[in-house]
Amino acid sequence: MSATSVKRPAPVADLDWDSARMRSLAERAVGLYAEYLDGLDAMRIARDVPAGRVREAVVRPVPAEGLDDDELIDHLRDVLVEWGVQCGHPRFLAYVTGSGTVPGAVADMLASAVNMNVGGWQLSPSASEIEMALMRWFCDRFGMPATAGGLLLSGGAMANMVGLKAARDHAAGWDTRRDGIAAGPPLAIYATEETHVVTDRAADALGLGTAAVRRLPVDDGLRMVPSALAERIAADRADGVRPMAVVATAGTTSTGAVDPIEDIARICAEQDVWLHVDAAYGGPAVLADDLRPQLAGVEHADSIAFDPHKWLYIAQSAGCVLVRDLQHLADAYQVHATYVWQDTERTGAGVSLGELGPQYSRGFQALKVWLSLLAHGSAAYGRRISHDAELARYMAARVEERPDMELATPVGLSICCFAYVPEPPAAAEYVSRLNERIMTELQLDGRVYISNAVLGDRFALRACFVNHRTEADDVDVVLDVVAELGARLDGEMR
Ligand SMILES: Cc1ncc(COP(=O)(O)O)c(C=O)c1O
Question: Which residue has the CA at smallest separation from atom 5 of ligand 1?
């Protein structure tokens, strides 16, 4: 080394933990994870406490000097177990919330440890290739062609938004990215009253405005009516509006209804309109032989929103958008930045996934999905997805044999909607209010956790089976708790 008079900075190694230091914390964390798995069934799912009390219990000042491992683990136990909500608990059946797989959690830790940036191929060659392969595997499951591909995103909201952005830029007929949407005729999106509100958010964010979303009425099964769709498209065209995309839902959030995708696809082909399928919840039905026929026609989609963090049981967050031609994502998102210059001659042209969507730097989210699929195998997924639908049907059958409950809708995929009905009978408006109170009390009770659907003017209780830990005994407990709370609250409210 050449002599120098320049003062050399001394090392600052406080943040640089070696493997022994890592082990000390990580092995304690694994112990906490084991404690969680062993104790989950007996845990309270949620607590009946006000926000201020939670804040007091979990928020602590950031110390100037780091805490020791025992203090860190005690804090993690407080945050994650004592004061958290246990969405992975076998009797958590609310919203559409995946339960979280063990291989996924392990993958998350290691993906963070190695920390590739999956925005650029050269920063993440293996991770980028895994994400591409995973997306291709999903596309194949949906029956999409060889040109198809996709991108992992944070969840259904972003997946629908990116799918509709690709639709806008492809279907508008002018350069929307350069000139904006004001440079052409008004654009319209076709959905139903049951379509998830993220379609409205996407229309807003894409500059169309929420009024561009045509909320078509539904049939008795809460599905899109193809003839009404065709009529509305024709009426819009006559008014000088350009139909941009149809959003068909494969598994609505409230009841699990599946729009008639085959018929909708036919209309989209005839009318040359982009078909986007929101399969954020119901998509995994394609992995279960008995459920797959319900999604017939999904192979015609131009884009699909599909969330591994729902019915593939992956921990939040992991959604993806799949497009019929990967080029559509490049057309919607590619930009040129001089500061991300990359060689393509020596390494070949790997795809930089940051060019295909709204995020530039990206983590290796795909690993938790990939490792879960590798560890469990697709057959186990198919069996469990089918079993979830069976549990929803079991719940419906149990509801039907009880005098104090009634089914609110037929089971759709793996969702059962029902209501507690008091004795003596009461007005519908009272029954709705009673069920609303039941849900609130039940979510604070801690033994079980379900959510609701509003069907017309009726408030229904709703159990969504996307939890790989739930079994028939859990369903029985949910119904018993509903009956217990229903009888008590009815007594208080009359
Ligand atoms: C059909 C459907 N689409 C979109 C979403 C929004 O997904 P996320 O909450 O992952 O953004 C949901 C959420 O439940 C959904 O069920």
Answer: 156
